[in-house]
Design brief:
By secondary structure, this protein is of the alpha/beta class. Helices cover 36% and strands 26% of the residues. It is built from five helices and seven strands; from the N terminus they run E-H-E-H-E-H-E-H-E-H-E-E. The strands form two sheets. A five-stranded parallel beta sheet has the order 2-1-3-4-5. The protein starts with a strand and ends in a 7-residue tail after the last strand. The relative contact order is 0.15.
């Protein structure tokens, strides 16, 4: 599983990485957590990398999180997007971006754990799958789609 954290504040990135690591350990998962300090850096990575989860701050220098999410959605609809922000005022703009959740800072570890548990249920909704890479792009193939090996 590949998770992106998009936040221009390194302290906030580290704060979120801790519960992600704890949750992953508890679920025997080894996600790849990639940190981005701007929306542009994140968007540049999308041409080569797919993410299952994206945690995105809204108030950032350069492109804000809403603008970044709108551009991300032009490239992929499959990624679960979780906004993490200190402001409630962007909630209405978050809905057209197909946000999975909207978490207000400061948040508690329990809130992040809840979001991660719900996200995993959503990601596993389609059934069991195998992951593999094609041209550095992560692909999923449902086991039910395999006809012959």
């Amino acid at each position: 599983m590949r998770i992106a954290i998009v936040d221009d504040n390194s302290t906030e990135q580290e704060k979120l990485a801790k519960p992600l690591g704890d949750w992953s350990t508890a679920h025997h998962l080894t996600p790849e957590i990639i940190l981005f300090d701007s929306g542009d850096a994140f968007l540049n990575s999308l041409s080569e990398t797919a993410y299952e989860l994206v945690f995105m701050d809204i108030i950032m220098d350069g492109k804000n999180g809403i603008e970044t999410a709108q551009l991300m959605r032009r490239m992929t609809l499959e990624t679960l997007l979780i906004f993490l922000t200190s402001s409630r005022e962007y909630m209405e703009q978050a809905f057209p971006c197909h946000a999975f959740d909207y978490v207000i800072k400061p948040y508690r570890k329990e809130q992040i754990i809840r979001v991660l548990n719900e996200a995993m249920r959503q990601l596993n909704k389609g059934g069991e799958y195998i992951e593999f890479r094609v041209n550095r792009q992560l692909c999923r193939l449902l086991l039910t789609d395999i006809l012959y090996v």
